[in-house]
Write the structure tokens for this entry.
Amino acid sequence: MRNDEQDLAGVKVLLLEGFARQSMPMMEALHKLGCHITTYNKSKLDMGYSSKYPDKKLLAFWDRYDELKSAKALMRVLKQEHYDVTIPLTDFSATMLSKYKNKFEKYTHTAVNAWEVFQLARDKLNTMIACMENDIPCPKTLRSAESVEKVISSGLAYPFIIKPRVGYGSIGFHCIHNENELRQHFDSCVEKFGPMLVQEYIPQTDIQYKCEVFIDKNGEVKSAVVFNKTRWYPIDGGSTCCSASVDRPDIVESSVKLLKAIGWRGYGDVDLIQDPRDQIAKVMEINPRITASVKVCFASGVDFARQIVEYETGREVTNYPGYTTNKVLRYMHTDLLWFIESPNRFKAKPSWFSWKNTTDQIWNPKDPLPWITYTIQGFAKFRTEKKKRKR
């Protein structure tokens, strides 16, 4: 582990999607490293534009529903100015960079895996198959679920869940309790989201986990941080709004084994849920990009920004053999909604009212303006995002 000396001073980094929550800790960390930071934004309200940390702020076209036009816009930027490393922050940008990696890498190093490996991670069925074939704990999952009739004939016990094989958050997620519900939702979900994953429902009465791992080009694990997801929103299955770093070597073992099984290199994020029926943490999916909750890892002493830049510029990747536990991260914008809707609002652990060892995903007293601009954007898109997750 190194001190915070600026041995990466002057490395030019292009950070995509300044609207993403993970841009906040990434910008601060890259600034501390002395990197020259350029953020790619689609609005002046994006945190990557309102933050004090970037050396340069771009406004350019970006639309996750128009991959080709977005790729062309990014290519124009890369041709105009050299960037040593380009870092994606969402599923959309990571997918696009990986798909066109050979083209983009004529101009920059892209912090994504090769497409053939990336596809194994982004498709949840591929992830489950890798788990089943390598004795990694995961929910019972159907390998084939092309139609309602095939799902029914599988004999999978109710309740079970259906969710898009490729997607994020809780969009398209349904818990199915009987055949009528299956027929009601399955075909419409396939039409809207594409192929669906069908697997047993694990009662969400226990804790969910994330494990952030960094693997170098030689296949050596350079860091691994586990944090729990004690609260999430929507409350019946959604994105985390409160997390804390924890010591779970069993989760590290499962996550590393999975990522190595598919040939993953660089930064990887594995989602798990602890099954209250047998107390085993089971893999749910791999997120092939930097998670929105990565700030808890920085608070716990692991600098993934450093590792990414070192890896992509051919340097030796810093090793972090351990991390500090009991560091708490909250996303108050949705943790407040959790408090309003949850029947457990006064029983939560950690307490909803406690701020001990806690930081917020967005708020940074050294850089307060992004919180304001993000909140303005949040009000504008809240209804749209809520509708996407409507059951």
Notes: The chain is about 35% helix and 20% strand. The longest strand covers residues 221-233.
